[in-house]
């Protein structure tokens, strides 16, 4: 412990310089004009892995070169020992609105102990910390105490469209005892947490069609169905007034929270008042009988993301519109299945039989299954001990409201669990202007990987 | 009768030439760049009235010259006789999409017995017929058999914003026994009708506000209220599922239809199947217990004209929007009051108390009171007789679904009734590309005014 502490403190300046080099590459995966930059970032990661001592490093083109490459690294210290895979990504979000950045997003700038740049936390910074953790093990011990592999993708910010196929094709390379995610966040800058679950996703659109053209509301209003009335009725029917999803069967596959899980979530530090104040909302609202943290992490939702039809300009237009639309996403929890949920939503919509209009339900790609780790997984206990040492406070479990499709890829394709073990601070403006990373948090996170891999070597492993 | 028939037939070519001159003036009141054209059209009307023999003609600037002028004409044949005021307008709708016109909208073209141009029917053609009817009375009888005044405005297509003020200011000039509207339509090219009512209008917008910004549906969904859910609930609550307006008190002031009025409406020729087929709708839908014609003309409505919030693009965006909006117009029938109706809508919306959001109701200007004439008004009987003579078929009564604010201005400001007596054919594409008038219908309509004013002179008048 004294060794690694002294070591990472001594490397601080080098870490900062290397990370800045990584952050200067504008690897925006969503924008075709940045393709050479995305490629450059992949090469940078490969080089960083080699520098860290990883003996086998390969860059795999995806989709015949049309996708952004996967960087694979493998350090087999002893074939008899367990293997831990570290997942991360080197691509970043676009920078718009660029005028809201205090300094240019790809010219990292240090201000008051923070380094500002796009990707500083998500995910270049967090990935960098994981690589440096493995590097530290090599420098201080000659090799990691377990086998380590890396899977670093360049398409996370565009929904990882080719990753599942890559994982299916390269199961031999990726086989591991546990995957560690270097993408994610801790509870606060002062406290770690163990994210044990992320929600799944199912998306669709409801289209309601009436007449063959927009009608004059004076000449037709009151005598033919209005698609906007029909849509409002359909949408209102998706929830009970008190906030439960009203789709029959929606909750049937939901694994109920055990009293222990509820106690656990209740003990997570969470300032609900501050959380509401930050978004300007007076009171929470959701499924009756559950706390806000339960509603966010452990219960499924059905949210309307958009709704539109007819006139949206200033003042009045007396139109009876020909069509009306709404977009829906459901966040799912174990053991809900996205296809089954969309079947149920569609059946419920059709059952409403609103007269005089035609109703269509379209499903969107991008479904993801929910993910949750068993709370008694030994790696969780090991990680909890490391986090408590690092932060000086116990690390509660947490459940992510959002969706990380890759978590479930590991489960379903490789049969392995996926441990969120990433040191992003939750206030670092990821995906937004002025993204940053706290410079002092970097050596701590490097130590975090060092200590966890050590601890996992000491435990029975995770088989 | 023989005289006037021979006369109007003989004038056919002159009518056509003069009307084409009128139609060549692009008097689009909505477009500021056409202001000189609108002025020119006002002068054209003034000149046409003088040519028709009207002794006093004046052009009144509106709103200190910022509005489009009113053309006033007065032919006092005998102060002891009743006075009939003819209302019409010389401004026209814009021509977009101009590429859909077969010939340029302000270069009138004759094709297959029709004259194509913007305003050919609405309202230059119909106004022209009224002026020519009075002209014919002068030419054949020296003077009209009653006193006739003209009120011709240039702002009808922009909602007559200054007309009520003008009417209040000039009550002395406008005092009359009955107003005749040269703006409106008949049942079909082959059959006249007596439009005895038009609906009123009340308009508002509902705005629903949640968080202070759009939220991530994964990080917040299910735990704070979604303005789109709240709006759907509010909008769905405005009607019962079977199509009645659910706002308490909404129907309380509605004058019930008498059995005679219902019989009357039921006898109006109306091909519901063809009407539905034209708009591509399979079945009618509306307030239970009423026919389509009753729903359109004699019952009030509440229609959603627009609704929007959140993401409207392609695919999925996992947003929980900060706000949601909807626009509403109600069509009103006697004796509903627009302000009272908006009070009731607002009270009903507020009574729903959807949790977690802030709801605002904004009222729009442009309210109009409903209008209906007593069915036993003697002028209706006189007009019915003239129309039966002209078309060779009885003229049923009809109720307009739309709103003509000026109808109620005459009632409330001048205390006079407003008789829809305009010869527009309902299929002439008013407000749309390729507007036209049937050339043969012009002499018939001129004769229509001639005969009605003669008939009204013979009756006891309409005091």
UniProtKB/TrEMBL annotation, chains A, B:
<dbReference type="Pfam" id="PF01546">
    <property type="entry name" value="Peptidase_M20"/>
</dbReference>
<dbReference type="GO" id="GO:0006508">
    <property type="term" value="P:proteolysis"/>
</dbReference>
<dbReference type="InterPro" id="IPR002933">
    <property type="entry name" value="Peptidase_M20"/>
</dbReference>
<dbReference type="GO" id="GO:0046872">
    <property type="term" value="F:metal ion binding"/>
</dbReference>
<feature type="domain" description="Peptidase M20 dimerisation">
    <location>
        <begin position="196"/>
        <end position="352"/>
    </location>
</feature>
<protein>
    <submittedName>
        <fullName>Peptidase M20</fullName>
    </submittedName>
</protein>
<dbReference type="Pfam" id="PF07687">
    <property type="entry name" value="M20_dimer"/>
</dbReference>
<dbReference type="InterPro" id="IPR011650">
    <property type="entry name" value="Peptidase_M20_dimer"/>
</dbReference>
<dbReference type="GO" id="GO:0008233">
    <property type="term" value="F:peptidase activity"/>
</dbReference>
<dbReference type="InterPro" id="IPR051458">
    <property type="entry name" value="Cyt/Met_Dipeptidase"/>
</dbReference>
<keyword id="KW-0645">Protease</keyword>
<keyword id="KW-0479">Metal-binding</keyword>
<keyword id="KW-0378">Hydrolase</keyword>
């Amino acid at each position: 412990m004294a060794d690694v502490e002294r070591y990472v403190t001594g490397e601080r300046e080098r870490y900062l310089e290397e990370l800045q080099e990584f952050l200067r590459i504008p690897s925006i995966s969503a924008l075709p004009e940045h393709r050479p930059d995305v490629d450059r970032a992949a090469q940078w990661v490969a080089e960083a892995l080699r520098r860290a001592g990883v003996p086998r490093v390969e860059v795999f083109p995806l989709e015949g070169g049309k996708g952004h490459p996967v960087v694979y690294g493998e350090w087999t210290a002893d074939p008899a020992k367990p293997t831990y895979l570290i997942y991360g990504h080197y691509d970043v979000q676009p920078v718009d609105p660029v005028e809201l950045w205090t300094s240019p997003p790809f010219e990292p700038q240090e201000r008051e102990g923070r380094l500002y740049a796009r990707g500083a936390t998500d995910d270049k910074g967090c990935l960098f910390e994981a690589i440096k953790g493995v590097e530290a093990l090599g420098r201080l011990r000659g090799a990691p105490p377990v086998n380590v592999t890396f899977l670093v993708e360049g398409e996370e910010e565009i929904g990882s469209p080719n990753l599942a196929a890559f994982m299916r094709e390269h199961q031999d390379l990726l086989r591991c005892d546990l995957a560690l995610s270097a993408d994610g966040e801790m509870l606060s800058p002062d406290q770690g947490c163990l994210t044990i679950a992320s929600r799944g996703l199912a998306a669709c659109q409801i289209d309601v069609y009436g007449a063959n053209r927009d009608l004059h509301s004076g000449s037709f209003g009151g005598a033919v169905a209005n698609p906007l009335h029909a849509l409002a009725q359909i949408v209102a029917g998706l929830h009970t007034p008190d906030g439960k999803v009203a789709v029959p069967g929606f909750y049937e596959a939901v694994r109920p929270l055990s009293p222990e899980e509820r106690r656990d979530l209740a003990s997570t530090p969470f300032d609900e008042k501050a959380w509401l104040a930050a978004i300007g909302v007076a009171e929470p609202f959701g499924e009756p009988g559950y706390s806000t943290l339960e509603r966010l992490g452990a219960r499924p939702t059905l949210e309307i993301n958009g709704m539109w039809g007819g006139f949206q300009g200033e003042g009045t237009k007396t139109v009876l519109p020909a069509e009306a639309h709404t977009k829906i996403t459901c966040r799912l929890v174990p053991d809900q299945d996205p296809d089954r949920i969309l079947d149920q939503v569609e059946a419920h919509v059709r059952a409403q039989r609103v007269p005089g209009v035609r109703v269509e339900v379209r499903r969107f790609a991008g479904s993801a299954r929910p993910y949750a780790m068993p709370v008694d997984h030994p790696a969780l206990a090991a990680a909890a001990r490391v986090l408590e040492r690092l932060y000086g406070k116990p690390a509660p479990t947490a459940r992510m409201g959002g969706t990380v499709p890759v978590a479930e890829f590991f489960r379903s394709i490789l049969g392995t669990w996926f441990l969120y073990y990433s040191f992003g601070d939750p206030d670092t403006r990821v995906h937004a202007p002025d993204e940053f990373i706290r410079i002092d948090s970097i050596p701590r996170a490097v130590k975090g990987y060092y200590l966890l891999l050590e601890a996992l070597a000491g435990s029975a492993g995770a088989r």
